[in-house]
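Researcher: I'd like a structural prediction for the single chain below. Treat it as a standalone chain; there are no partners to consider.
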Amino acid sequence: MPNHALQGHTTYPLPQQVSLNEVLTQISQSQRETTELSEWITTEVEKIASHQTNQLTRLRKTAIGLCETDPWAMEQAKEKLNSLESGKENLKQISEFIKRLTADFKLTVVSGSLDGTVRVSKENHSQTFEGHTDAVYSVVVSNSKEFIVSASDDRTLRVWNLVTGEQTQVLEGHSNLVFCVAISKDDTFLVSGSKDKTIRVWNLSTGEPTQVLKGHYGSVFSVAISSTGEFLVSGGLDKTVRVWSLASGEQTKALEGHSGSVRSVVFSSSGESLVSASEDKTIRVWDLSTGEQTQILEGHSGGVWSIAISSKGDFLVSGGVDNTARVWDLSTGKQTQVLEGHSYYVLSVALSSDDLYLVTGGGDSSIVVWSLETGQQVQVFKLHTLGVFSVKLV
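Model: Treating it as a single chain, here is the predicted structure.
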């Protein structure tokens, strides 16, 4: 903005005797400055309008995202937003509406704990799924959102109806505790990893194992299935990341680089790369086709136990034994947020389907839901009596 716009109106004291030309010159100068001031005001108003539009768009996305799991609530939110946006104080009113919506809204969280239970929590209601006789290390929600699968120290995998809590299947076959489970995109098969050093592929319609994959020299801590269902990736105590063909059951790659146990593995949304997290405090990105390491993300001061990748593949979240969850920009490999709130290890992280929220499970037995837009805690659950080893958002 020109200096004179900050100082108020410019005054032009005239001498007692002036020529017509002098008066016209001063009038011309005043007109130029008035024009400059007018142009500046117009530009600033346009900036404010643009900023407000961007804020409104972001707020609308947040509100609808909050209600996406409840169709009725979503329609109510849209109706309210349309009403507010027609008002004069729309930005302020919508901001207040978002705050109320956030305060009232409760995300659905699925969790598995060392206390041997699986819990589903929404609003002020929590349902306990009991059946395992020992610690639950992993839970996964079907893509249809109709059932849950849990993996346990009791050497079994159990399938539960998400709505009723009824246990519908018990899958047995591992000879030692089961650390991890993943489900295919079409919900037709499961993959599990165990302390018995094997990976098992299960047909969900029959509950029977169809393949037993051997290659790791120690416990298998994490497994993930590519979106196409073509590949499987695993990580384990032997410090390796292994890629498998699910069609043949053959190992296609063994990726080495970590100096500690590999605790978590995920595929990128494109399926062209995979990411691993290790007790060596690093997160590594690998090119799936070449097996080459393309990035090393460093920032945690202790082992990294869990990672999750956004639906667009643009950012990653991690949790570790330094009691923090961290957010990473995958285009730069830089850390963008450090979320602190747990008093003990962050054992599990998961993202909401819209990537707006993160849920973390801790060794302190708490579950925390975070807004990734603000970095603030939205909810804290104290449902389990022991550490929470696995969390998911529905």
